[in-house]
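Appendix C: a fully annotated inverse folding record. The material below is reproduced so that readers can follow the format used throughout the book. The structure is listed first as tokens, followed by the designed sequence.
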């Protein structure tokens, strides 16, 4: 029997969906994982204090500065489960400390781009998004030069099959009713608009070095196939499991090894139907818009992400129509000139982020896409 080594883990964003599930995994595997650092944003301080009492980490704290410090602690793996652009500095801190980075905070990679990838050693970033964790697993089945394309699956969200006209009057309650996943409000709305899938296209390009024209999105409503890799001989490898984040979280914390019984597998004794549909780019233009931002490069992905975060807040508060989210992001990107810089800095990225937030707020205030 193979011996199990104890891994010291730091969890950033411990009170959110990813963080709480990661702690469930630690709780179930005390022989594999030991929490040495916990941080959170502070929106659920009671939960955070309970986590600190239970896991007694050597370091704990609230806010961005605490997360930056925790990410640089001596440990085996840092799980960045923070939501939004505020995760950028902790991501950089983890990489600069030489820690393995289990990355659920896709925004930091997307907005940072080469600022992040240039600091990462080969294999130092382990994706925790279910789609990218699936791709990473499938890539074990062939050499890099044998890959023809990546196929990311999207559930289609709660509005799959609707036309753009039919999306005009949908509200927050409907958008937050995701058919297969239980997530926080921002990512749930992003899944409804397919902005999240657009972000994942950029993320896949940065993680795996695959050109944008070799990354495809297909709609798969049951979310059992999490993504696929097609090889040049015509073979396609898929990673399948019932909708759960426990498998990618477990792989993130224990990469490259698996954690036994991290989640239940597909029950092959019952009928199982897998359906795939092409993406409707007219009703859901967010993926094409993200692809365009990614191809522009530089700070354009940061503008895409920041403008969307402002728009989601406005939609949830009743200030912006559902279709106005992506329309506003497109308007902001259309007004943005990507600076021709030789090398991105944190100030470049955060400056573009701040500009996009101001621009999106102005467009919303002027009434574009309002309810």
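Designed amino acids, in order:
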């Amino acid at each position: 029997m193979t011996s199990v080594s104890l891994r010291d883990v730091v969890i950033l964003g411990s009170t959110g969906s990813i963080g709480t599930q990661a702690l469930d995994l630690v709780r179930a595997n005390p022989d594999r994982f030991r929490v040495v650092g916990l941080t959170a944003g502070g929106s659920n301080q009671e939960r955070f204090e309970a986590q600190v009492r239970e896991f007694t980490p050597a370091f704990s704290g609230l806010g961005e500065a605490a997360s930056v410090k925790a990410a640089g602690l001596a440990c085996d793996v840092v799980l960045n489960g923070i939501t939004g652009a505020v995760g950028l500095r902790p991501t950089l801190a983890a990489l600069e400390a030489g820690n393995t980075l289990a990355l659920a905070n896709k925004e930091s990679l997307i907005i940072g781009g080469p600022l992040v990838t240039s600091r990462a050693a080969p294999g130092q970033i382990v994706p925790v998004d279910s789609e990218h964790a699936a791709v990473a697993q499938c890539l074990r089945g062939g050499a890099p030069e044998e890959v023809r394309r990546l196929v990311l699956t999207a559930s289609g969200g709660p509005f799959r099959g609707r036309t753009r006209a039919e999306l005009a009057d949908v509200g927050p309650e409907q958008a937050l009713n995701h058919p297969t996943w239980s997530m926080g409000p921002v990512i749930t709305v992003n899944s409804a608009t397919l902005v999240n899938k657009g972000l994942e296209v950029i993320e896949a390009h940065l993680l795996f070095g695959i050109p944008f024209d070799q990354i495809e999105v297909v709609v798969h409503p049951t979310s059992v196939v999490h993504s696929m890799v097609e090889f040049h001989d015509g073979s396609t490898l898929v990673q399948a499991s019932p909708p759960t984040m426990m498998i990618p979280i477990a792989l993130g914390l224990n990469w490259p090894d698996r954690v036994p019984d991290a989640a239940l597998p597909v029950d092959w004794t019952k009928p199982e139907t897998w359906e795939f549909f092409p993406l409707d780019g007219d009703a859901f233009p967010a993926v094409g818009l993200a692809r365009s931002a990614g191809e522009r490069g530089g700070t354009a992905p940061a503008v895409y992400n920041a403008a969307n975060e402002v728009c989601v807040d406005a939609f949830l508060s009743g200030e912006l129509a559902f279709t106005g989210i992506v329309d506003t992001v497109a308007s902001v990107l259309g007004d943005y000139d990507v600076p021709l810089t030789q090398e991105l800095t944190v100030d470049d990225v955060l400056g573009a982020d701040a500009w996009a937030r101001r621009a999106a707020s102005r467009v919303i205030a002027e009434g574009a896409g309002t309810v």
